Structure formats: C-alpha cells, structure tokens
Amino acid sequence: MAEISMGEAVGAGFGIIRRRPLAVLAWGAMRTLFAAGMFSFMAPIYLNLFNRLAAQARTGLTPTPPDFATMAQMEAGGWLLGMLGGFLMIVIYCAVFRAVLHPDQNRFAYLRIGMAELFLAVLGVGFYIAFIIGIVVIAIPVGIIVAISAAAHSAAIGALIAVLVGLAAVVGVVWIILRLSVVGPMIVQDGKFHLAEAWALTRGHAGSLFLIALCMFVILMLIESVIGVVALAIGAGVLGQMAGGFSNLPAFFSRPPATILANLAPALVVAGLASIPISGTMMAIVAAPWARAFRDLAQPDVAATFS
C-alpha cells in the first residue's frame, strides 16, 4: 500500500519556490493585479456613496440608504468579481499542481485555461451548492429540536444537541474535503474528470492528509503573524508620517474619502508590489502538498491510478 511522505508533502511548496521563483512571482502578480482591478472597479461606487452620505450629513439631512440601482450595481459587481476571483484561484492552483506533476510544462509559469481548470470550476460550483443544501438539511431538524426543547423548558438540552450536531457536521465536512483533497492534482495529471477515483485513492489516508493540512495551517499562521506584525508597524509609521503625527490621525481621516485615497496611493502601490512575492509564496505552500500527496499515493505507476 502506497504511503504519503509527510515531510516531502509539507515541503513541496518550498521546493517550488526555490526551483521556480519566477513562476511564483507570476502567480502572485496575477492575484495582485486582480485585486487592483477589483479595487478600481468598486472604489468609485463606494466613494460616490460615501460622498453622498457625507453631503447629507453636512446639510443636516438624515442619511438615506443607497437607491436600488446603486445596491444592484454593488451586488452584481460583487458577485461577478467573486466568480472571476474564484476561477483565477483555480487557474493558479492548477498551475501549482502542474509544477509538481509536470515540471517540464513550465511555459507561461505553468498557467493554462483548459479542461482541468473547467472541470475544477464546475466541481467548485457543485461543492458550493451541495454545502448550502447540506446546511439547510441539517439546520431544519436541528431548529425543530431546539424549538421543542425550548418549549419544554429544556433549552440547555436543545443547545447541547445543536452544538453536537454542529461539531459532527464540521468533522464530516473536513473528512469529505480530505478524501477529495487530491481531486485537483488527479484532474491536472491527465485533464480528465476523477471524482470517484480521488475518493478511492485516499481511502485509509485521511489521517495523513489531516496532518498535512494541520502543518499547513500552522505554517500559514506563523507566516501571517510575522507579516502582520511587520505590516502593522510599517503601516502605522507611514500613516503617522502622512498625518504629521499620530495625534493628527483623526483629522487626517476626517478628510473626504477621495482625498484620503489620493494621499495613500503611493503607499498602496508599494504594498501591492510587496504582496506579489508574498501571495505567490502562500499559493505554492498551500497547493503543492496535495499534488505531492497524490504523486506518492499514485506510485509507482501514476497511469495505473486511472486504469
């Protein structure tokens, strides 16, 4: 029975960063450019909204909620950008999988838009719908039980049941995710749909896959903590300098939003450039272990996995 090399899996992302730094930068640049585009698209909408509310406040009028057209524009823009952002993440994840499974296919930083990406996009939508349906199916009977318990003056029992069901649901979702964690690499391997095969391949390996996920969580928390502290220190210093001292920060942020944004533009550009290697590195660290785990489970003959 094939076994997963925990150390190799956890370190797979760091190996890509060392061997393919330009590809990692390309992945980070894609996410940063998308974030900049999203900001450029949504910022004018919110600036107009804030300016209107501020004008109403200055004239003594009670601020009114945004009109239906503005709300519809914000909602539609949010949904569209969310879908595009999700597909972009799938494309980058597939590139990371490809860097592990097909290191020779390094054109365009391993980025493609093909059947593998489309299959995973469809799977993502399907999982999202199934998750929502699952929540509704679980919430209805739990809500009924809690309501009956409350009516019978046993609210504590109802709350306990709700907590236990919630924990069981979380464990079940995590287990399903782990069992399907190699479906992306399997699809990238040959561009074919492999849902049932991924479930079968991970049978008996949920524990190892959970330990990989736990290691990834710890590593990411450590990296984000360090980056967060550094970013907070630098950001506070930059804001203090722009405002002419920390005591002037309230006055600085009392300016019109457009003026604040214009003052912060150089700092935002620098932050965006700094986010490129950070974002690409995080993507490699998160995605590569699952491709390496699949490669271990599919040994010695990857092709035999699909027979």
User: Distance N terminus to C terminus?
Assistant: 17 Å
Low-confidence blocks of residues: 302-307
Q: What fraction, in percent, of the residue positions are helical?
A: over 70%
Note the run of SSEs as H and E. Answer: HHHHHHHHHHH
Structural class: mainly alpha
Please summarize the sheet with the most strands: none
Shape: globular
Find the count of extended strands (DSSP E, 2+ residues): 0
Explain this structure.
- This protein is mainly alpha-helical and 307 residues long.
- Helices cover 80% and strands 0% of the residues.
- It contains eleven helices and no strands.
- The protein has helices at residues 6-10, 12-19, 21-58, 68-101, 115-151, 155-179, 183-190, 195-201, 206-243, 249-253, 257-298.
- Mean pLDDT is 86; it is low at 302-307.
Please supply descriptive tags for the structure shown above.
80% helix, globular, disordered C terminus, mainly alpha, 307 residues
Entry summary:
With 307 residues, the protein is an all-alpha fold. It has helices at residues 6-10, 12-19, 21-58, 68-101, 115-151, 155-179, 183-190, 195-201, 206-243, 249-253, 257-298. It has eleven helices and no strands.
Chain-wise SSE layout:
Elements: H1 6-10, H2 12-19, H3 21-58, H4 68-101, H5 115-151, H6 155-179, H7 183-190, H8 195-201, H9 206-243, H10 249-253, H11 257-298
Helix pairs in contact: 2-11, 3-4, 3-11, 4-5, 4-7, 4-11, 5-6, 5-7, 9-11
